[in-house]
Amino acid sequence: MTRTDQTHRYAGLSALMDRYLDGDERAFAELHRRLSPLVRSQIRAKISNPATAEDLLQAAFMKAHGARHRFAAPAGASPDRAVAVWYSTIARNATIDHLRKLYRERAVKLDTAGDDTVELLDSLRDPLPSAEAMAIEHERQIGIAARIRAALARLPRTQREVVTLHKIEGKTMAEISEELGVREGTLRVRAHRGYKALASALGGYRSQPAAA
């Protein structure tokens, strides 16, 4: 998407946000209509189940509503784009919260690999976006997503396969075993090695302080 396309896509969001903050319910409805495709697309990139993605979409808008008076466009940034980035960050955090909960519920205990994976999910989660966080969020998302894709791509195929099915798609080891025709014990070993490799590859993001 070109900068001109982005400008057109976000045009008028700041004015709608101002009206929404003043209590205009129609402005909120229009914000929801304008931003839902963007937020939904972001969530669906990580959540394959449509119903779950829709629940997360509504949860993100509810969280944004509760924190709406904390919104402030950073100095020098496009006010319209700042609105989109703010909602995008909240949706991203809601998605990571869901994945973290899912992992904790379904993950097989694999020595310290489970702790590493939860910590990785925590490291990807931002605090409620401040002006500074909104200013860098888009670039940060691109960098993190690229690094995760690269780290996954470097895993051996068998490890990448089980990590993707287990953590990203949220399947149990029993389900994966049935799907691939591989014993659960073998899958656990592959997952353990894959998670440790990812923890090492993505360690730089874990050590970075969260934006204030």
Write the layout of secondary structure elements.
Layout lengths: L2 H8 L2 H9 L3 H20 L5 H17 L12 H28 L6 H12 L6 H24 L2 H12 L4 H8 L3 H18 L1 H4 L6
Helix pairs in contact: 2-3, 2-5, 3-4, 3-5, 4-5, 5-6, 5-7, 6-10, 8-10
Give me some keywords for this one:
Rna Polymerase Sigma Factor, Chain: A; mainly alpha; 212 residues; Arc Repressor Mutant, subunit A; disordered C terminus; 11 helices
How would you summarize this macromolecular structure in one to three sentences?
With 212 residues, the protein is mostly helical. The chain is 75% helix and 0% strand. Residues 147-198 form the RNA polymerase sigma factor 70 region 4 type domain.
Average per-residue pLDDT, rounded, comes to: 77
* SSE series: HHHHHHHHHHH
Radius of gyration: 19 Å
User: Which regions are unreliable across 5 or more consecutive residues at pLDDT < 50?
Assistant: 108-114, 204-212
What is the CATH homology-level superfamily of the largest domain? RNA polymerase sigma factor, region 2, helix turn helix motif
Number of contiguous helices: 11
Structural class: mainly alpha
| Sheet of most strands | none
Report the span from N to C terminus: 29 Å
Fraction of residues in H or I helices: over 70%
